[in-house]
Amino acid sequence: MRGKTMPVKSNGLLSRRQLLKTGAAAAGIGAAGILTGQGTRYAIAGNLTKIKLEWTEVAACHSPVGFALDKGIFTKHGLDVELFYQGASGQTLIQALATRKAEAGPGLLYDWLKPIEQGFDVKLFAGSHGGCQSILTKQDSGIKTLTDLKGKTIGTFDVMSPSRVAFSVALKKAGIDPEQDVTWKVFPFDLVAEAVLRGEADALAHMDPWAYGWEKEHKFHRVADTQTGTFKDRVCCVLGVNGDYYEANKEALKRVAAANLEVHQYAAQHPDEVAQWYFDTLRPGMSVETLTEVLASFTYHDHWFGDKLRDEVKRGYEDLKLTGVVDASTDPEEIASRITIDIFA
User: Fold this and answer.
1) Which InterPro entries does the entry link to (predicted)?
2) Are residues 123 and 61 in the same domain?
3) Are residues 189 and 244 in the same domain?
4) Is residue 216 domain-shared with residue 244, that is, in the same domain?
5) Sorting pLDDT into bands at 50, 70 and 90, what band is 293?
6) What DSSP assignment string belongs to 70-96?
7) Rounded to 5 degrees, what are φ and ψ at 168?
8) What is the pLDDT of residues 159-179, one digit of tens each?
9) In this structure, is residue 93 part of a structural domain?
10) How many domains does the chain have?
11) What is the DSSP string of 130-168?
């Protein structure tokens, strides 16, 4: 069960057509149910607000976004959504919004922060889940904890992959210099596990579903992930929006946040359904059962809005200051307050 890069639609787009009680409490909006068909409809058919959302089609954690489009959840919230595939790199996430190929969408928290610090006009308005990346190694490697990685080589899929950025923070907090005490080595996206098996790297840092699939297939040891240790109870992916689009479409963005909240709460309760859609639509090269396990492992039941999201953004800036990615002069409190929208206020 080797991970494979999923096919991309040639035009980069997929198109088509309550809040649950837990989500409604967080959002302060009336609840309804996906399966009952009850829900607040914000616009009549033919009068939907158009918006282009970017997403990382290859990332398991983003599958609820595609599921929501296919099942009509965005339409129910008065939105005519197109999904733009932006790839697995945080840089292409930024480029998609900067070039107006998309107006909003989810991305890893750390991927947003440096460009925003440098003046990129994006506001962050919702956190969707925690967990989707791991560091793995062979069972007989002798590497059991982050501190055991000192002097070792870690394989990843990009020189500044999201996994490298995240685990550089974790290594630094564990007393390991992520630039001097470990060696990062880049391999093709779907061959990182092979590098560990061949002895070309001592460990790998990668995203799900590949990391989860390789851990299961090769019986790898999970050294760390983005749900435990320094990342326990933390947000992983956050939705951002171009500042000018938000100023002109505040009500639409509230509906995006409401739809996002609804589908992620649904995914927490029905990971098998989202996994089946993921399998049928994107063909990720692993079984529905494994995909269900992957999706069930994410903290889709947690939601970050308002003060809770602002605190996560502040902590994110503190983390990246620690690793030198963010300037030492940056004030995490000030910038977090400035760029975070309390979307349901």
Assistant:
1) Solute-binding_3/MltF_N, SsuA/THI5, TAT_signal
2) yes
3) no
4) no
5) very high
6) HTTHHHHTTEEEEEEE--S-HHHHHHH
7) -65, -40
8) 888 899 999 999 999 999 999
9) yes
10) 2
11) ---EEEEE-GGGS--SGGGGTT-EEEESSTT-HHHHHHH
